[in-house]
Amino acid sequence: MASAESARTPRTEMTGEGRPMRPIVPPGILFGAAYYPEYMPYDRLAADLDLMRAAHFSVIRVGESVWSTWEPDDGVFDLDWLEPVLTGAHDRGISVIVGTPSYAVPPWLRQKYPDTTAHRTTGGPIPYGGRQNADFSNPDFRFLVERVVRRIVARYAAHPAVIGWQIDNEPGLELLHNPGVFAGFVDHLREQYGDVATLNDRWGLAYWSHRIARWEELGSPDGNTDPPYALAWRRYQARLTAEFIGWQAAIVRELARPDQFVMTCLAMDRPAVDNARTLAPLDVTAANIYYPMQDSLALPEVTEPAPEARPEWLRSSGTWTLFWNADLARGIRQEPFLVTETVASSIGEHSANYPAYDGQWRQAAWALVARGARMIEYWHWHTIHQGNEAHWGGILGHSLEPGRCYAELAGLGGEFERVGDLLADLEPDAPVGLVVSPDSRWLLEFQPPLVVPGTSTPDAGSYRRIVTSLYRGLFDRGIGASVVQTDHLDVEVGALVERWPALIVPALYVASDDLLRRLADYAERGGHLVVTFRTGCADEEGRLRATVMPGSLRTPVGAHYLESTNLAAPVDVRGAGDGASFGGGAATGWADGLVLEGATALATYDHPHLRRWPAITTNRFGRGRVTYVGTLPDAGLSRSLADWIASISLQPDPWRSMGASVTSSGARTRDGRRLHFVANWSWDQLSLAVPAAVSDALNDEHIDRGGALAMGPWDVRLLVEDGLSPRDR
């Protein structure tokens, strides 16, 4: 168990010469919530902190939302209000992360510096009242941000409670259309392409008479219809966001202690964010992970409440979304990560109240830890009594009295304290890599290949649907996945094969020739490469390749296509050849007209027109193989595909199939021990046979191989393989 002292004293990694490299998160699992005493209806600081300590809190996050409190008027600062919070937390062994307030600007700033207002469209300023509504590239805004950040950090860097700094909050919400931003974009293009003739050629601007004779003629992005322009614009926006976060981080580091880490609070895949690029200058990944609860976490899946009953941004439901977001966060840097915000009770609007069933808070938190989380922090401590998010439920409700949520989290905090050291530097099981590409996401948002189900509306979420359809199959079959940035592939190919025996590449629409060559080399050297429709179609500029597709992957795939079709309705798919055991499922959304050139069919369409083409193919290539998925698999087909990939390319693992309502997520500890996080996502009382001798790290129960593991409804067990209790080690 980590002591209170170790929980609030960060460590610093050292180089071989003994010099500090970068601060790292304290050992164990940090546990807590965002805390806003400035929003309380009355002074209750001591009572709140006592409740937090009783619930085994080890961290709180403060200060990021209240620039107008830090600086009530231009150049007038009030910095002392946070001192009692930090001192009270420190006295109780609770660490603090302090946020910089640049994401929510005060009214005086908007009125005195109107040119700092963000424009959502050219000439269209965002009305005051929300957040992320400033042009953070504006020099006046930068001056004001630097001034307040320097004051805050200088005031509190020496405070012993402070272990880290959060830069901004959920950056990248808006695509900025300000005149200065557009001028900077044109300057960037001028530097990249040199002259307008090159730009005209590379972007294909002869189409619809879009050729320009001078840089001043480039149209604004509002009405743009050219894909290379769209890609360049999104890349530039992501670059601005990353540069702003890095700029602020440098200011903080000038004044912060060397042992304090610097992070931001990432809402992954915001419009103006490249996750990996934004976090590159920071010390650790920190992400907000939200998900629907109640029956949305049930396995097998149920359909109530209907997706339409939830806020639009939460309509993707299911236990798999919790794991997906955790794997997405870990994959940004291939490192453990922090969860800066997750679900306390209700999420979002007044009409979207689905607080957890008993046990689900605990389950979800352990699931995040199983996939690499080093901090679980809830948003937020108390349900706020005013403002836009007054119905976004905290750990305490509007009454401020501890209830069901507090009681369950207090028990969870005790578990984290007890076994925290066991969980340091976990390496989650992830034998399959799944490649993601922000460039491909942006272009498939601009020109979607799929429609919103049940409509004729192009679906801007097509890329995510394709990627997660493959991820869900792995999840349903208990196969851990590592989300891989395209930059992570830029290593020795043999190392890729060793790290990920199977590599899934969904809808890599934008890809350089070098990246496609590297994928082919991966397969030739012994890896199992799985690619899907819409892969390799466009080059790094976003220009469609003038070749028979799948282009340079044609030989490795062992098939080509000359036409594709959307599917207006699902089409049943049957196993064929080596995939004859496919357990059913359907093709949805899309079908490539695949013609075999050495590959064999794994699955075919049960349709009088489509049956001429295979739905899924596989081809031996060098020492490995390439499997091509020419359609969007439904859940059944994705599960069948995952089963087949596992049978061909992965080591057997008896923990993968524990029951329809059960997940078993494996990991290896720092000292090489095997852990299994087993959860029952149902109301059923279960008895499961364990494939190996284990001890439950939370209650010291020992179970022999083949013995019965009892699980209650919405239960989770943390099992250490080999039969020895952690206390006996």
Could you describe the 3D structure shown?
The chain is of the alpha/beta class and 729 residues long. The protein folds into three domains: 4-177 and 220-425, Alpha-Beta Barrel (TIM Barrel), CATH 3.20.20.80; 432-650, Rossmann fold (3-Layer(aba) Sandwich); 656-728, Immunoglobulin-like. 29% of the residues lie in helices and 22% in strands. The chain contains 19 helices and 30 strands. The protein has a ten-stranded mixed beta sheet, with helices on both faces. An eight-stranded parallel beta sheet has the order 9-8-5-4-3-12-11-10. A six-stranded antiparallel beta sheet has the order 13-24-25-30-27-28. Strand 10 (285-289), helix 11 (319-333) and strand 11 (337-342) form a beta-alpha-beta unit. Helix 6 (139-156) runs parallel beside helix 9 (227-255) and helix 15 (462-476) crosses helix 19. The longest helix is centred in the N-terminal third of the chain and has 29 residues, at 227-255. It starts with a helix and ends in an 8-residue tail after the last strand.
